Each structure stands twice: as structure tokens, then as C-alpha cells.
Amino acid sequence: MNIQPNILIWTILCFCAFMLILWRLLLRPLLRFMDARDARIAHARSLDKSAQRAEEEARREAERQLALRRSAEESRRSLEARREAGQAELNAQALAYQQETARRRAELEAEAAALIPELATSLRGHVDAFTEKLASYGER
User: Fold this and answer.
1) Where are the beta strands (DSSP E) in 51-101?
2) Is 0.70 topped by the overall pTM?
3) Domain-embedded: residue 113
4) How many whole angstroms separate alpha carbon 26 and alpha carbon 44?
5) pLDDT digits (tens, 9 = 90+) for 98-124
6) Which residue segment(s) compose the domain that 117 sits in?
7) What are phi and psi of 4, to 5 degrees?
8) pLDDT per residue over 21-37, tens digit each?
9) Structurally, how many domains does the chain consist of?
10) How far apart are CA 47 and CA 40, in angstroms?
11) In this predicted structure, what is the pLDDT of residue 140?
12) Does residue 70 belong to any structural domain of this protein?
């Protein structure tokens, strides 16, 4: 086995020419394709991240809205309970006032009933005195 410099040079030249052809026709388009694919993947990842952020923000907003609704419902219930308690208290006070008024009325009616005979006697005395005065004026 002898090394023939002639064949060695042509082999190296052919190999370099083949590599240049492969570089131009195959490797450049393959690298462009890979770069484009990497760009699409990066874009998809950024879209996915922004979608995740938007989804997280929407979830937080939904939780906030739910908390606000729960708080509003709790406030409404609390106000309703306060209103009912106030209404019950007012009803109790109104009943107490009605009972007090009825008791006082009964007392006043009893007092008036007790004073009617005294008033009748007093009125009779006044009427008698008045008629005597009128009679005395008539005699003059």
C-alpha cells in the first residue's frame, strides 16, 4: 500500500467540494429550518406563559369577585338580622307602650268613675248656689 499524492490531493479536493455542496444545499437550509423551529417554539412558550398569566389573573379576579359576593351576602344577612332584631325590639316596645297605655287608660277611667259622684255632688251644690243667687237677683 503506497500513498499516492495525486489521489490524496484529489480526494481532499473532492471531499472539500462535497462538503461545500452539502453546506450550501443541505446544512444552511437545515439550520434555517431549525432556527425557525426554535423561534416558533419560543413564541409558543411565550404565548403559553402569557396565557398562563392571563388564566392566573382571571382566576384571581374570579376569586376576588367571589369573595366580594360572599362579603356582600354576609353583609346583607347581617343587615337583615339587624333589621329583624330592630323590628322585634320595636314590636316589643310598641306592645309595652300599648299595655302601658291600656293600664293608664284603665286607671284614668277608674279615677274618672270615682270622681263622677263627687263631681255630681259638687255640681249640684254649685247649681243650687247659682239658682239661689239668681233667685236673689230676681227678688231685688
Assistant:
1) none
2) no
3) yes
4) 27
5) 999 999 999 999 998 888 888 888 888
6) 59-133
7) -105, 115
8) 998 898 888 999 999 99
9) 1
10) 10
11) 60
12) yes
